[in-house]
Design brief:
Blueprint: E1 2-8, E2 13-19, E3 24-32, E4 36-45, E5 58-65, H1 68-79, E6 93-100, E7 111-112, H2 115-123, H3 132-145, E8 151-155, H4 165-168, H5 174-180, H6 189-202, E9 212-218, E10 222-228, E11 231-235, H7 258-266, H8 270-279, H9 282-287, H10 293-301, H11 305-329, E12 334-338, H12 339-344, H13 346-354, H14 365-369, E13 375-376, E14 385-388, H15 393-409
Parallel strand pairs: 1-6, 6-8, 9-12, 12-14
Antiparallel strand pairs: 1-2, 2-3, 3-4, 4-5, 7-8, 9-10, 10-11, 13-14
Helix pairs in contact: 1-3, 10-11, 11-13
Bound molecules: adenosine-5'-diphosphate.
Adenosine-5'-diphosphate is lined by residues 219-221, 248, 292-294, 297, 339-341, 344-345.
């Protein structure tokens, strides 16, 4: 069964096309700057996916792309392209899986997209005004271009639906929760779910039964998740993806009392304040250089003091959360690093683990420095296992899509 996975943002559509019998990626790509005359489409055939084609054959074009429909039309054209395609006919696309950022309290699992689901997604626009509208646009565009092909929505929030109330309620007047559903939802759920399940497979305990695990997703956005018996019990992102860790350009935790003060002093509007918190804070805000960790590390190693401070603050906040979640879990059996920084930054992992020996973390410095991809980086003696596990959100979306489509096919026609 071949599945198209779409991640539709406000101005981009990222995609992966997979053969799920064998879980092989066939092609992937991105359409960026949608809505502009100089939108960019990059499409790549995965190595080995199309025998006879040049290895890594790709399309790279700058073209006008008006909207999400036009973008997804290009994606489908690329998949069936005589030179760069991987299928002959669009009928080979068995289903489409969509990343949807916010599932609110309604969606605790992935779902088949129906009219009711689309209506419910619209009702969640207020909760995720930047993300859910383009996610729905992607769904509508795929529906119109692939009529009759099942569409599945997979939510970033769903994995965290198992959090207890003590973890997800804010200490605001209770009416704010009852009336407006202001609570912690958490994000990056698909990634935390993937790496924790993968850890279970790697250590021979698929459900992570009896285990206390902390997963650190450290990319441009970053979050930590406390997992007991395979289920999320707390996570650092909250009502929005702004809470918690210091991120590339997002502040993470700040005293809410500082915000009206800054607004008054700087004469900022709410949208200017939000832009400051989301785009001009974090590593970029502190360093004044960049929100990109690789660049921060480079400048720090050259002696830049603000880059050093940004790095140290990032590591300090992360460690603080790991300590807090070890207390939440009342112990720790495994720590997992993922995301661009978690997978690639030797220095972040080394500095964090150096300060966690009191929890029983003993890093194998050689394994941390050497090697690539999935690996254990703690010593055999370490009481806490430390792992690097590259995330694969697209695979989770494709797996959920296949599971839902298969269960649909096994139902009697009358009840579908
Ligand atoms: P996104 O959250 O947008 O998917 P990624 O997960 O790709 O982003 O993570 C991007 C971050 O990973 C950037 O801060 C980048 O600098 C960082 N990163 C990538 N490679 C390295 C590396 N070798 N060392 C340190 N940081 C790295």
């Amino acid at each position: 069964m071949k599945v198209l996975v779409l991640n539709s943002g406000s101005s981009s559509v990222k995609y992966q096309f997979l053969e799920m019998d064998g879980e092989q990626v066939l092609a992937s790509g991105i359409v960026e700057r949608i809505g502009n005359d100089d939108a960019a489409h990059t499409h790549r055939i995965a190595p080995g996916a199309a025998p006879g084609r040049p290895e890594g054959a790709k399309i790279q074009e700058i073209v006008p792309v008006l909207d999400h429909i036009a973008a997804i039309r290009r994606v489908l054209a690329a998949l069936t392209h005589p030179e760069y395609g991987v299928i002959q006919d669009l009928r080979e696309v068995a289903a489409v899986g969509h990343r949807v950022v916010h599932g609110g309290e309604q969606f605790t699992d992935s779902v088949l997209v129906t009219e009711e689901v689309k209506e419910a997604l619209r009702s969640l626009f207020d909760l995720a005004p930047l993300h859910n509208p383009p996610n729905l646009q992607g769904i509508l565009a795929a529906e119109s271009l692939l009529p009759g092909v099942p569409q599945v929505a997979v939510f970033d929030t769903a994995f965290h639906s198992t959090m207890p109330r003590v973890a997800y309620l804010y200490a605001l007047p209770y009416a704010m929760y009852k009336r407006h559903r202001v609570r912690r939802y958490g994000f990056h759920g698909t990634s935390h779910r993937y790496v924790s399940q993968r850890l279970g497979e790697l250590i021979g305990n698929p459900g992570l039964q009896g285990m206390k695990v902390i997963t650190c997703h450290l990319g441009n956005g970053a979050s930590v998740c406390a997992i007991r018996d395979g289920k999320s019990v707390d996570t650092s992102m909250g009502f929005t993806p702004l809470e918690g860790l210091i991120m590339g350009t997002r502040s993470g935790d700040v005293d809410p009392g500082a915000l009206p003060y800054i607004m008054a002093r700087e004469e900022l509007t709410i949208s200017e304040l939000m832009s400051m918190l989301n785009k001009h804070s974090g590593l970029r805000g502190i360093s004044g250089i960049s929100g990109d960790m690789r660049q921060i590390e480079e400048e720090m190693l050259k002696g830049d003091s603000r880059a050093r401070e940004a790095f140290e603050m990032f590591e300090y906040r992360l460690r603080k959360y790991i300590g807090a979640y070890a207390a939440v879990l009342e112990g720790l059996d495994a720590l997992v690093f993922t995301g661009g920084i978690g997978e690639n930054s030797v220095l972040v992992r080394e500095r964090v683990c150096r300060h966690l020996t009191f929890l029983g973390v003993e890093l194998d410095e050689e394994a941390n420095r050497q090697g690539k991809g999935e690996r254990r980086i703690s010593t055999d003696r370490s009481r806490v296992q430390v792992w690097v596990i590259p995330t694969n959100e697209e695979l989770v979306i494709a797996r959920d899509t296949v599971a839902i489509v298969r269960s649909l096919m096994s139902q009697p026609v009358a009840s579908r």
